[in-house]
Amino acid sequence: MDMIFDRKLPIPMETKEMYPLSPALAEVVARRAGELRRILDGRSDKLLLIIGPCSADREDSILDYIGRLRRVQEQVEDRIFIIPRIYTNKPRTSGDGYMGMLHQPDPDEKPDLFKGIAAIRELHMRVLRETGFSCADEMLYPENFKYLDDLLAYVTVGARSVEDQQHRLTASGVGIPVGMKNPTGGSIDVLLNAITSAQHPHSFIYRGWQAHSLGNPYAHAILRGYVDKHGRSVPNYHYENLMQLSEAYTRRELQNPAVIVDTNHANSGKQYLQQIRIAREVMLNRRWSGEIRRLVKGLMVESYLEDGAQPIGGGCYGQSITDPCLGWEKTERLILELAEQA
User: Which of 23, 33, 52, 217 is surrounded by the most beta carbons within 10 Å?
Assistant: First the structure.
């Protein structure tokens, strides 16, 4: 046998019994969910800002960062709705590198998913309790969504996962807005097929059960750029890209057409400082075109306490150990600038 089973992990229900969500915090999650839906379906014109580290690596620095976000949110709450990124599991293109807090609650130690399940639930709960933010995470493993489903505001399906059937089926039944990234090859047809699937009801197998979903009317697009056959990054956030996607949305007659522009990844060529310029261009296009303003609901930005990135064990508090991020000073200035333009 090539696969070795180390230990049996607790199921989501058992984990929630160990780390229960109080009724008061459940009300906070529900209230924020309602505001997010109003943005995505056009009842609110606030700008949605999904922002935070590339990966959640340390509880102390994540709490420090999100505490600062809370103070800025209070300054811009009439124009911007902030959802912090707490990405606790990370896809790796080659299979190498840090795979997130779920795998390694301590990045310097070997993987321990038993501790990781507890660590990610505790982190999301601490942020909710201490800052009032329900946050975003990535659905890297569809069967793991239930460990956090009562805590999250938003979930993403990544560029490597968006063509996978189980991700699409699960997205159709998660009960919160799902942002679906364009695939690494850039196909808008593939992206819209994924959204179409997520917006429809399905019957499927989930965690050993026959399950059915009702469809998710708030499944929508995230544009993150793509890589061409020569390995070059190609952005897809420009005016022409957004207009083409708007037309494609109209042809498909999908519910609640919405786009989030990811300012990093292939859109920036992973040049993290370019996120500021990209955000400004998107905001300019929203002001130029009413059609784009109605379609583009917000931005996704990777930022942390310190500029750039470091290797695991680098020792710089609040600096990413995966993709480079904007530091806090630049992040704060960008948020305040976006509020003026929203």
Answer: 52
How many other CB atoms are there within 10 angstroms of residue 135's CB atom? Answer: 28
**CA pair distance 146, 136, nearest whole angstrom:** 14
In total, how many domains does the chain have?
1
- The per-residue pLDDT for range 40-94, each reduced to its tens digit, is 999 999 999 999 999 999 999 999 999 999 999 999 999 999 999 999 987 766 5
State the burial class of residue 118 (Cβ atoms within 10 Å of its Cβ: 0-12, 13-18, 19+). Answer: middle
Structure confidence at residue 168 (pLDDT): 98
Q: Which amino acid is at 283?
A: M
CB 226 within 8 A of CB 234: yes
Close Cβ partners of 145 (under 8 Å, ≥ 6 residues apart): 139, 155, 170, 174
3-class DSSP assignment, residue 320: strand
The Cα–Cα gap between 312 and 278 comes to 28
Provide the strand spans (E) within the chain.
Answer: 47-52, 80-84, 136-138, 154-157, 178-181, 202-206, 209-213, 219-223, 226-227, 233-234, 259-262, 296-302
Mind listing the pLDDT tens digit for each residue in 111-122? 999 999 999 999
In this structure, is residue 218 part of a structural domain?
yes
Flag whether 1 is in a domain.
no
pLDDT over 70, % of the chain: 98
| 6 found inside a domain | no
Residue 295 belongs to a domain with what CATH number? 3.20.20.70
Q: Which domain holds residue 256?
A: 12-341
Report if residue 4 sits inside a domain: no
Say if residues 154 and 36 touch (Cβ distance below 8 Å): yes
